[in-house]
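Handoff note, outgoing to incoming analyst
You'll be picking up this chain. Sequence as last confirmed:
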Amino acid sequence: MKGIILGILALLILPIFVSAVPATFCNDSDGSDIWTAGYTTTDKGVNVDDCDGASGNLKEFYCDGDKDKLYNTMCSDFNAVCVSAGDETVPDYCACDSGYVLDNGTCVAENTVPEFGLIAGMVALVGLVAGVTVLRKRN
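Most recent structure output, in case you need it:
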């Protein structure tokens, strides 16, 4: 009888201890993208991506399973700058400086990206020459 009572008490008390264990989770708003301002949310709180002062270092938070971790990346390694909102509660990110564009994960000067305008101009010039040639033959 004593064993039955202890068993019943264990069944009544055990759910209290099991439900007291918090669920662990991790969500990353930007999917570890240094070019997007983001944050991680876990059962312990929120961590925002953050520029580390004048160093240009971005502390990028990401999820590894149900835990958040961070890696440091130098935006300058990608010819970029760290853009800070100046508020630790607002996420920061890497961005191309003025006159640069993002190309294959790094910032390059705007004039080094192949321009389709140049190709279109050459095609138009060839078309113009062909058109003039055809008109001359008609006359």
